[in-house]
Amino acid sequence: MKAIPVPEIDGAYLFEPTPHTDQRGFFSRTFDRDVVASVGIDPDGFAQDSLSRSRKGVVRGMHLRGGAGEAKLVRCSHGAIFDVVVDLRPDSPTFRNVKTFELSGETQVSVYIPAGCAHGFQSLTDPSDVSYRIDRPHDPNEDITISYKDPELDISWPLSVTMVSDRDERAPSLGEALKSTR
Prior knowledge:
Elements: E1 2-5, E2 13-16, E3 20-22, E4 25-27, H1 33-38, E5 48-54, E6 59-65, E7 72-78, E8 80-87, E9 98-104, E10 110-113, E11 117-123, E12 128-134, E13 143-145, H2 166-169, H3 174-180
Antiparallel strand pairs: 1-2, 2-10, 3-4, 5-12, 6-11, 6-13, 7-10, 7-12, 8-9, 8-11
């Protein structure tokens, strides 16, 4: 497994495993504490693992946490997703940068998203399973949602959006969400 810095989002990394493939399928290590520690991330700092399953065209996001924020390690374990990270840390050299990735069950690549960054994705397959490893217990009182269709973010979702949650549909613009975090 190797760690690859994401220059567009300061502190973000892709963790690229080395799948071992044969006639049965494949075996892949999806987390390696030594590799994670080698780039300054505390491998023991994760508090919860979660999983979402989405249908093709579903968008989940854009989400982040207030307070101390929330760092995430995100991987598509089955299917494929179009993944989006937005740096919303005012003191970051990559503030307001948007970076997209395609994550898939074929590659098992994970993306580390630092606290203070918004995250969302669109399912490219039916279904897609997304695994999240987060660094502190979830507190719904700290949830912040930004409109996935905000023109300032200018995210080009690759498929027609087939479904979003009510919360995501009613989400404020980036500007309004940033005001509420100050």
